[in-house]
Amino acid sequence: MEVFVPMDEALTRALQRIEQSVSLEEQDWEALTAGSDLISVGLAADEARRRHHGDRVTFVQVVEVPLDNAEASDPIPEQAGEVRLVGRPETVSQTIKAVKALADWAGVVPVTGFALEDLLDLCGNKSEKLERLLQQLRQAGLAMVSRVAFDALGKPEPILAALRAGGMDVASLCVDSPSGATFREALLEVASWKRVGTVFRSLAPLARMDPDLPSTGYGDLRRVALARLLVDNIGSIQVDWARHGSKLSQVALTFGADDVDAVSAVASSDQGWRRSPREEILRNIAAAGLTAIRRNGGFEEVADEG
Question: What is the model's pTM?
């Protein structure tokens, strides 16, 4: 016989205040971040995700190319939906040359790359120079900047203006601060930015770098759920398949995430197609009761073959 366990009153109040767009008080934050009822938080985030996306979950298969080896010669993997330049650019000319070379190799597959803060540093932290560089990179074939760290934005308005004027979007806004209080403040600040969803395609709430101590997953799932509940002005909440693993990524889909980044485009030849990254992500999304939608590096839906 199933036993119904009522939701904690404090958590119920906090979730109702979020739904009503009412400012949260300290006791609400305590219920959301320190309470034991993670399942109810996850269910609320899942409902919020469904309001945005229904049962659709997007994923992209990526092939990474080092910046210092951008003149690739091997055939592009046929499952690749994105070619991503990785590495810190040293000069403007090197950066533009690498994008041109990779765009020629990638053909119709979108080329992405760089952390926006590295490009800004390359421009001496001048937003007007960043605008010009983004225009040059777009003309060279860059479809999108890969990511930007929340901590690197400071006052975001000049950078957002440079992105819009340069005709460039950023795939992921990474909010990976380690402390709960800082994470909370970051989410609330992002939620207050106007029209940010027209520039940043997704919010990535989990740390991109491997932590010193392995995660139990509970804290990560809570961060994903809070990101979906509190940030309504960016369409997608993203998890990284390569860094966070297939299992955490799958469960995160039931806690508010709707986009899976960095699924490998390369399958091991000795495992067979049924164990390829494509088949694994399709199975995991289906097992979460959701519909898998392939996309490319420009966040455009890609039709399945055949």
Answer: 0.92
